Amino acid sequence: MPRFVSRTPAITDVAKLAGVSVPTVSRVLTGSVPVSTERRERVLRAIQELGYRPNGAARALIKGHQSVIAVLAGATTRYGYALTIQGIEEAARLAGYIVMITVIEAEDPDTVTKTIDLALANPVAGVIVLKFDPAGIATVRAMPSGVPVVAVAGSRGSGVPHVVLDDTTAAMTATDYLLQLGHRTVHHIAVPLAGRRSGRSAGWRKALERAGAEIPPLMEAGWDPHRAYEIGLTLADRDDVTAVLCGNDELAIGLLRALHEKGRRVPDEISVVGFDGHPLGALWSPALTTVQQDFVDVGRRAFREVVAMIGNEQPPQNSSGTPHLVIRESSGPPPEAKRR
Amino acid sequence: MPRFVSRTPAITDVAKLAGVSVPTVSRVLTGSVPVSTERRERVLRAIQELGYRPNGAARALIKGHQSVIAVLAGATTRYGYALTIQGIEEAARLAGYIVMITVIEAEDPDTVTKTIDLALANPVAGVIVLKFDPAGIATVRAMPSGVPVVAVAGSRGSGVPHVVLDDTTAAMTATDYLLQLGHRTVHHIAVPLAGRRSGRSAGWRKALERAGAEIPPLMEAGWDPHRAYEIGLTLADRDDVTAVLCGNDELAIGLLRALHEKGRRVPDEISVVGFDGHPLGALWSPALTTVQQDFVDVGRRAFREVVAMIGNEQPPQNSSGTPHLVIRESSGPPPEAKRR
DNA sequence: CACACGGATGATAACGTTTTCATGGGAGGC
DNA sequence: GCCTCCCATGAAAACGTTATCATCCGTGTG
């Protein structure tokens, strides 16, 4: 088992052991300027022997430019969050950047500023904030100026550049689809709000308004599928509920479980539509109709955008993601339409 | 929209604007030594005005110790991986560390060394490798010495300190449980191997051997639930298959879907047991019996271990996680046992 | 009144690397 | 054989911050 001695070897140690000057070692490392074969050999051997590894901090200091992107997010394990981070990491790695992840545990100003300070205490080239929830919104608001920041969100916003998945349109598409199947109205189990006038719940409401349909009270389930399950148990007893749009697929699955337990048939009696395109949704019985979002792509776009900001370049044309409705087994016409 | 000027303000600019010396600005920033109220005011105003932000690279350079933990993983979005990373991040943030994530895309030596170099080009205090798959194994093997490294794995290993979830015991527990229910043998759909003599598949085999049960050929499904679904379609036609242990819950769900489509009743005709304790498994119909693993905790333990290595301290007592079997609806006695 | 003491402050060194600049030597052209 | 040019090499500067040390001033004590 290796011991980690108090002082890690520095470039001077390598130079001394190899019998060359410090810049020569540096030249061997960077390969910027040719070094005679014999000296290079000696240097490489010394590096090997000492287990030398260049100090990144010193390098970053002199180079001036950083190559770390900080990602601030309210969570990392939820499907959409994890996939967005995957997209960022992938694009970053291919471009030679490294991704730092920091979770914003709460939305109170104290936690938010403390977390931002922790993240920005490190040499960071740019920041990407996942603005999918209240904590994300508070973070974007509290970000100090002077650092390139990009927000990833379900809808456009102001202050910093936004890279978006059009949640509002997506929710409208799903709601319209259910209305066109003949449902009088669509109920909605919501994830935490990420904006009052935009986002999934807003799209749902807008579509109902436009169609002149009744707008049932919004049911908030947070992020917990079990909460959606509980809501589902009460919903199952109601005849007037024929279609439910869920804020994400996890909630939809909780709801499906409750309806199944209560013996309600999906989609014959109740239609359920989820949100996100969670891969397990396709394996459910009935397979979940959902609005698929390309989270990985939005992550990539966010990275490209923040890199453009770092370089003071023109940002790439920022198309918003085009969500598409994946119709599977959990949705269909309402019972009264069938009876006719 | 803010512009990012070519030269970001440095501490000298702040000192000049505030009319104080550079160390005084530093003292205001760190709070290490008291500064007169009047000067502090001037400094803070100058910082505000210039939008000054200390250069982390310079700080890291002089402090000598880094506060970044690099996490190398074969994936980030899969349930176990994501939760382990969550545990690491949480523990790290509370201790004032920051987590860098880098994905090892493939297991070939070229990709592995290139990715390691990318990650270690940054100032890193320690490294945690998620050794859940072949890529992780290759990474641990290729890690240069001199850097504190901890592996998170399903079983103990050599070379670097390991923090483990005891997958082998866990798989044996699950297999024993099924055998005790009366199943003649247990089939197994496996995730990619993380060691030939240990891990989930090894535990399954060991339990069968010990019980003197027939050892059916192992079915490899990779990480893809759809592959498990396809395997399930063929399995559904066989009478001799009464119990299946799956390498993770996603595979189990794919299998359940296939059995459902084929009209096979679970658990009456076939028992299915998953692995991990995925929260959606509890919402399945039938709810999935699974081996719950505390991934978040193993992440926390890995962080504590790597911090101990950094400080050359005695590592905390490294208990392995105690997985426990969560019996739900998808498992029960085989059909012949019922008939009697 | 002399002296010691302590707190705030500034000058300077230090961290480990890369870059810039100067130097020396060898090869090639006349 | 001499001059020029180029290439490899080393010395020194630079990056932005914190740590160390010395200095100065004011205050309290004998």
Automatic annotation (TrEMBL), chains A, B:
- Which superkingdom heads the taxonomic lineage of this protein's source? Bacteria
What Pfam families has UniProt attached to this entry?
LacI, Peripla_BP_3
Kindly give the PROSITE patterns that the UniProt entry links to this protein. Answer: HTH_LACI_1, HTH_LACI_2
Q: Where is this region: Disordered?
A: 311-340
Which key words tag this protein in UniProt?
Answer: DNA-binding, Transcription, Transcription regulation
What InterPro entries is this protein classified in? HTH_LacI, LacI/GalR-like_sensor, Lambda_DNA-bd_dom_sf, Peripla_BP_I
Please provide, alphabetically and separated by semicolons, the GO molecular function terms listed in this UniProt record.
Answer: DNA-binding transcription factor activity; transcription cis-regulatory region binding
Q: What is this protein called?
A: LacI family transcriptional regulator
Start and end residues of each HTH lacI-type domain: 9-63
The record lists the lineage as: Bacteria, Bacillati, Actinomycetota, Actinomycetes, Micromonosporales
